[in-house]
Specification:
430 residues, alpha/beta, 6-stranded parallel beta sheet, 17 helices, 16% strand, globular
């Protein structure tokens, strides 16, 4: 197939090196540029020809770039040549759509896949009259984020447009069952929704390889995006109750460059007030090629966020053989098999988190069994090869112009079989 991937983000070129796809900030948020780039490579490996269309954000940037066999990027001028917030970028999507349509009139792609609601506006505008199916992926959903955001933080236009885009697309790919339910409640047809999760480079992220140096304390690793510390305060409170355990925070500023105010400073001040500051390390943006070693060195990946659209951080840690103890929300519910690849806990309950951590860290055999099962699960369910195959199958159904309910049912049955086999393995190992 000739496949067009649309992204409103112009940061694709900066992630062209394979290892750079592991940037901690990208993992914390699910990666607005990481997803289309990694998916494009997976699709190209299976023989498809993929062009990524991105809005140009640099005046002196390239017009095209080759990112590997079968994958190219075209940067299109639409609005000012600088990074823009989504709301501002959306104003320039009609121009973006016009440029796309002019190119596709002479050489049409077989299918168009848009990432984010802003990109969806461009894709739907560009295919008018061309008969090209559009597949949509949202980074996250406004209706979900609003439950955890300040009033007015989520724009009304985004909240209104996301369900409209979902209803207009031939198919919508979501990263969790929770997201599928949210879309269905907004009248997006269930037959158009397919769960295809965030993938992992299982060659780079695996249990085999170097481990970062560490001391004798049990090590917890948590991820934070550069501008958000969701759940970190709950983790720090749990740390003060969990015994002699250390916490490494990946993403955001490092310990030497903490801002004088803001969320990260508040987390550090809380750690100091609880007398655990010496056991909290703000590692900052760990070099991409060093991230797998850090994850292998950890005993547990921990997250207490109340909103998790992708589970990317948990899945990357699990790929390295590190169990995940995470909040029972969003995509975590799909990724982590409770009591098999890690533990699911209620969000924002530090005492419960501390109790489960103490129990797990005190049982080395169980910790090891969870780690083995976690790596097995990621290899079988979350490799980019499988994600690309499932995505291509959705494209093919769209091209046939009809859904195939039996195929979706087979995928769900396969997932249940894999989960059941892992549960039995862990019971035997522990």
């Amino acid at each position: 197939m000739r496949i067009a991937l649309i992204t409103a983000h112009g940061s694709i070129a900066g992630m062209a090196a394979p290892s750079s796809a592991a940037k901690p900030g990208a993992l914390a948020g699910g990666g607005p540029a990481l997803y289309p780039l990694a998916l494009a490579r997976g699709l190209a490996d299976q023989g498809h020809r993929v062009t990524i269309y991105a809005r140009s954000e640099r005046r002196d940037g390239p017009e095209t770039a080759i990112l590997g066999r079968g994958v190219s990027v075209e940067y299109l001028q639409a609005g000012p040549a600088r990074p823009l917030p989504d709301e501002q970028a959306a104003r320039h999507m009609p121009e973006f759509a016009t440029v796309l349509a002019s190119r596709w009139r002479t050489r049409k792609p077989d299918v168009v896949h848009a990432f984010s609601w802003v990109s969806g506006l461009a894709a739907l505008g560009a295919v008018r009259g061309l008969g090209i199916p559009v597949v949509q992926t949202f980074e996250s959903l406004a209706c979900s984020e609003r439950q955890f955001s300040e009033p007015g933080e989520i724009s009304a236009s985004r909240a209104r447009l996301e369900p409209a885009i979902g209803r207009s697309a031939a198919a919508v790919l979501v990263r969790s069952v929770s997201e599928a339910s949210d879309l269905a409640r907004q009248a997006v047809p269930k037959t158009a929704i397919r769960v295809v999760p965030f993938g992992v480079d299982t060659e780079l992220f695996s249990p085999d390889g170097d481990r970062a140096t560490r001391n004798a304390r049990p090590r917890l690793v948590a991820f934070a995006s550069p501008d958000e510390t969701s759940g970190l305060k709950a983790i720090v409170r749990a740390l003060s109750l969990a015994g002699d355990v250390e916490l490494v925070v990946v993403g955001g500023p490092d310990s030497r460059h903490l801002p004088r105010s803001g969320a990260f400073r508040e987390v550090a001040q809380l750690a100091a007030s609880l007398r655990v500051r010496s056991r909290v390390t703000f590692a900052g943006e760990v070099a991409a090629d060093q991230l797998p070693a850090l994850l292998r060195s950890a005993d547990v990946l921990v997250s207490a966020t109340a909103h998790e659209p992708s589970a990317a951080a948990a899945v990357h840690a699990m790929a390295c053989g590190t169990p995940a103890v995470v909040s029972a929300v969003g995509a975590h519910l799909d990724a982590v098999i409770d009591g098999t690849t890690g533990l699911l806990i209620p969000p924002d309950q530090p005492a419960a988190l501390a109790r489960r951590l103490r129990q797990l860290l005190a049982t080395p055999a169980l910790l090891e069994a969870y780690g083995i099962a976690a790596a097995d699960r990621v290899r079988s369910r979350y490799s980019w090869d499988r994600i690309a195959s499932e995505t291509a199958a959705v494209y093919e159904r769209c091209l046939r112009g009809a859904e195939d309910p039996a195929a979706a049912g087979d995928a769900e049955d396969e997932e249940e079989v894999e989960s059941g086999a892992l549960v039995q393995r862990v019971a035997a190992l522990a």
